[in-house]
Amino acid sequence: MAQSNTTNRRFVLAERPKGEPTDQTLRLETGDIPEPGDGQMLLRTVFLSLDPYMRGRMSDAPSYAAPVEIGQTMVGGTVSRVVSSKLAGFEPGDWVVGFSGWQDYALSDGRGVTPLGAEPRHPSWALGVTGMPGLTAWAGLKEIGQPKAGETLVVGGATGPVGATVGQIGKILGLTVVGIAGGPEKCAHAVDVLGFDACIDYKADGFAESLKAAVPDGIDIYFENVGGKVFDAVAPLLNARARIPLCGLIAQYNATSLPDGPDRLGWLMGMFLKKRITVRGFIVFDDFGHLYPDFAKEMAGWVEAGRIQYREEMIDGLEQAPRAFIGLLRGEGFGKRVIRVGPDA
């Protein structure tokens, strides 16, 4: 079913998943397209971003943001076009980036919406390299990583929208960059296209040994968005005064219990103490949203100059979003995964 101008499709949360989301987690509903009132505009979704944080919003466990309620439209970043407007500063046809969620149409009073102009060159990129993932990479590395030329940076999820950008910024700033990714194709992309110095396949035999060989001087900055066995291999290689920007732990988002094995928390805390390691978790807009103008200016210049390469995985059809999201959590994505919900005209 394609996007229409008479019906609004939306995916709502049907249940709170235990472990990995299933085909029953989200339910597709249809209804009337809402009418904007005074001070509102009607937005038509063109592109929907799929991001790992959405798994956390399906849970009602305490977190940094309120969960999606059962029966509520699933949250998500979107690039939309203005259909009609009773809101000053927005005209029909304008492109905007916001958070309309997993649906065709949404009303907005302008809060949380950023204009993209009448004819943006790459509108969907506002969900990736020039949007939230790009800001996450830029701010996490520069503000928490505190990079110094000549240091060694290791990046988990090296070909994802955050990791790929982190590594390329690292090269711009004069770092030795080693990526970690799943499979030879992704690792080849990290080196040949993104310009990483090396990339280690965490799915291959001898992963920990290969990583150790790739960082003979140890690790000064580890950009963490994976966790699990990847962090297990990284931890012993961290140098004194290493910095760990922590923006995600995708390896454990579907976990229903603690992993098997001995309790290593005491060892880990002791290592942090003895090596004086800085670990800082961050929520990008809460912590670094005020830096967005600086980021936008610098990133736009890098992209325009070809210093930052960007890979986008476009999937057609809102109905494909649930399965594409499950695949994202399994590590099947290659680049920034975006759903094309409707036409761009």
Strand content: 15-25%
Give the overall shape, derived from the CA principal axes: globular
Q: Spans of 5+ residues with little confidence (pLDDT < 50)? A: none
Radius of gyration: 21 Å
Structural class designation = alpha/beta
Total count of strands: 15
Please, how many helices?
A: 10
Main β-sheet, in a few words? Answer: 7 strands, mixed
Mean pLDDT across all residues, rounded? 94
The rounded distance between the terminal residues' Cα atoms is 18 Å
Helical proportion, percent range: 25-40%
Please trace the helix and strand order, writing H or E for each element.
Answer: EEEHEEEEHEHEHEHEHEHEHHEHE
What characteristics describe this protein?
345 residues, 6-stranded parallel beta sheet, 15 strands, 7-stranded mixed beta sheet
